[in-house]
Amino acid sequence: MTEVARLVRLPNLVIAAAGVLAGGWIALARIALPAPLAFAALCGAALGAYGFIRNDIADAAADAVSHPERPIPSGAIHPETADWYARWALLAAMGLLLLALRAGAPPLAMLPCFLGAWGALGDYSPGLKRLGLGNVAVALVAGLPLFFGAAAVNRPREGLVPWAIAGWIHVVRELVKDIEDLPGDQAVRRRTLPILIGRAGAAKVAAAIALAFVPVSLLLPYRAQYGGAYFAVALVAQLAVLVAAARLVVGRIERVSALLKGAMVVGLIALVAGRVT
Fold first, then answer.
1. Which CATH number fits the domain that encloses residue 14?
2. Cα separation of 260 and 210, whole Å?
3. Which domain holds residue 104?
4. What is the pLDDT of residues 50-104, one digit of tens each?
5. Tally of domains in the chain
6. Which whole-number Å values give the CA distances from 133 to 75, 110, 136, 192, 211, in the listed order?
7. Among residues 167, 177, 163, which one has the least CA distance to residue 244?
């Protein structure tokens, strides 16, 4: 079970489910767990598991170079077994989506989100990443749980600002991961930014996007009339992003990805605090 948990990125699935719940709470301006939101959170986690597994199957050759310790390249899980897990995760996500719709979630808001995420996750490594579009796709999908949660409680507009903020910081993290994955991506001839402009150039681009995140994460919530609690809590996340940007400028990418993930978690708390308190 430990290897399966690593395959599906269990901590990331918890964050995905929390993101859906947070989106619902932001939209409702209160902490509550209506049935559509509960099913949507579980659906988001199941769909995330599908995406992570499909990504690892498609990335097996590249991971053998950059991340040989991962479950598939290390031999801990056979690709066919991983594919079986992915199929069941997708079926679970579909079933949970149907339960959310049956409980009252609006299909016109939920179905496009689900289908878009399904398509992007399924084609991330084999198609979008090879074309150099992987960062954009992942950023859109990674921020989607917040919008998905707001849509589940029939207030999708309230999820737009959180989606934009989450997507922005995910672009930075995905660029950092591309730098870390450079040897493996070169081995399978992908067109990622570090391959096209070099490691140092990609790090500077990521730093510039990280620096731009700070004013964006202030302006959008201000215009959406978030409460003062958002700005107080978000300060921690913004400082973490600034530290990450500084490290990227000097070419030190060690622990930057973990630093950005921590900023995401704090940012999630800030977004909820800005609406609920």
1. 1.10.600
2. 10
3. 2-276
4. 988 998 888 888 888 888 898 998 989 999 999 999 999 999 999 999 999 999 9
5. 1
6. 29, 24, 6, 8, 22
7. 177
